[in-house]
Amino acid sequence: MNSTRSSSNLDNATLSIFESTRTSTIISVIYMVVTVVNLVGNGLSMWLLLFRTFPKTPSIIFMINLTFTDLSLGVALPFQIAYQLQGYDWNLGPNMCSFLTVMFFTNMYCSILTMMAISIDRYLGIVRPMSFRETRKRKSMAIISCLFMWGLVLSVLWPMMTTDLTFDIPELGITTCFDVLKKNMLPSITAWAAFLFCMFFVLFFFPFCITTFCYIRVIKQLAKDSKTAQKVRAIRLAVLVLLVFTVCFAPNNFLLLVHTILRLYYQKSVYTAYKLSLCFSCVNSCLDPFIYYLGSKDFRQKLRQIMGWRSVSSTESKQEHRDILYSMHCVYEGQQSKNGHIDATQNY
């Protein structure tokens, strides 16, 4: 994002970014790979989650929500690829620009909030199994949580939905989409500060802290029992989620904050780095199916059946037996829900 010195002139540093074919080519290639992997992986995941995975536990509901946001990004990326290959020249009009930009950022922040929700569900099911014991109540809360996530994200991104995000650059004969934001997009510096605060702290940093806390507690709790395979999957899941936050989400959000402050107050820019980080943020949509594989036992089994793999290995069969014994132990201790199992634990 870059502020302008006038309605028709940009500084030389900004113009050089749009003249660089190397950066746009790298971004286009990454987007192409992400689009293919996204649509194939998440298309299969959505089919499995909707039609082959039962019952629809809270974790499965959150995974469906996450898959939907990923597929939305996969549909939007081809337009971004065309824009990059045409040399940052947008020719689909301001409304389409605003719509696709909001879709792009909605995927990022809904993914962050959904991963937080999944981590909270794991935490409640494993660390505090007596909380929210009724499956029906937990399902209702999961659906309400998904609707709340979308409402929160769209309310924060409202300025993008109501603003013309295109910008004409006569010097280069192009019209950019979202690459140059006008200062009058928001009425004051205070409004810009509130906008950035909500994007960085409410939609990224706070969920990141909650997710980290929940998975650390889950790993500690699982370390107390002897189910080695379950602990390994839990650790892999936690590492993968934190990796997505660290590699995909953190650089983009930190650079967005730094870049906007530099442009508003010091007339400096780190936009090239931000543009690349925005590109890498899309990689999260390719990693989410692996989160489902590690996070849902039923999803793993259905995927093995579809791919023609062995349903379970001998080692995993033994683990299934230990899981049953563990569930019987939970019943004896009075830690089970009314339907006779702990949902989040079984999902591992």
Automatic annotation (TrEMBL):
<feature type="transmembrane region" description="Helical">
    <location>
        <begin position="237"/>
        <end position="262"/>
    </location>
</feature>
<keyword id="KW-0472">Membrane</keyword>
<dbReference type="InterPro" id="IPR000276">
    <property type="entry name" value="GPCR_Rhodpsn"/>
</dbReference>
<protein>
    <recommendedName>
        <fullName>G-protein coupled receptors family 1 profile domain-containing protein</fullName>
    </recommendedName>
</protein>
<dbReference type="Pfam" id="PF00001">
    <property type="entry name" value="7tm_1"/>
</dbReference>
<keyword id="KW-1015">Disulfide bond</keyword>
<dbReference type="GO" id="GO:0007200">
    <property type="term" value="P:phospholipase C-activating G protein-coupled receptor signaling pathway"/>
</dbReference>
<keyword id="KW-0807">Transducer</keyword>
<keyword id="KW-1003">Cell membrane</keyword>
<feature type="transmembrane region" description="Helical">
    <location>
        <begin position="26"/>
        <end position="48"/>
    </location>
</feature>
<keyword id="KW-0675">Receptor</keyword>
<comment type="similarity">
    <text>Belongs to the G-protein coupled receptor 1 family.</text>
</comment>
<feature type="disulfide bond">
    <location>
        <begin position="97"/>
        <end position="177"/>
    </location>
</feature>
<dbReference type="GO" id="GO:0007596">
    <property type="term" value="P:blood coagulation"/>
</dbReference>
<keyword id="KW-0325">Glycoprotein</keyword>
<feature type="transmembrane region" description="Helical">
    <location>
        <begin position="60"/>
        <end position="79"/>
    </location>
</feature>
<feature type="domain" description="G-protein coupled receptors family 1 profile">
    <location>
        <begin position="41"/>
        <end position="292"/>
    </location>
</feature>
<dbReference type="GO" id="GO:0005886">
    <property type="term" value="C:plasma membrane"/>
</dbReference>
<feature type="transmembrane region" description="Helical">
    <location>
        <begin position="141"/>
        <end position="161"/>
    </location>
</feature>
<dbReference type="InterPro" id="IPR017452">
    <property type="entry name" value="GPCR_Rhodpsn_7TM"/>
</dbReference>
<dbReference type="GO" id="GO:0015057">
    <property type="term" value="F:thrombin-activated receptor activity"/>
</dbReference>
<keyword id="KW-0812">Transmembrane</keyword>
<keyword id="KW-1133">Transmembrane helix</keyword>
<feature type="transmembrane region" description="Helical">
    <location>
        <begin position="189"/>
        <end position="216"/>
    </location>
</feature>
<dbReference type="GO" id="GO:0035025">
    <property type="term" value="P:positive regulation of Rho protein signal transduction"/>
</dbReference>
<keyword id="KW-0297">G-protein coupled receptor</keyword>
<dbReference type="InterPro" id="IPR003912">
    <property type="entry name" value="Protea_act_rcpt"/>
</dbReference>
<feature type="transmembrane region" description="Helical">
    <location>
        <begin position="99"/>
        <end position="120"/>
    </location>
</feature>
<feature type="transmembrane region" description="Helical">
    <location>
        <begin position="274"/>
        <end position="295"/>
    </location>
</feature>
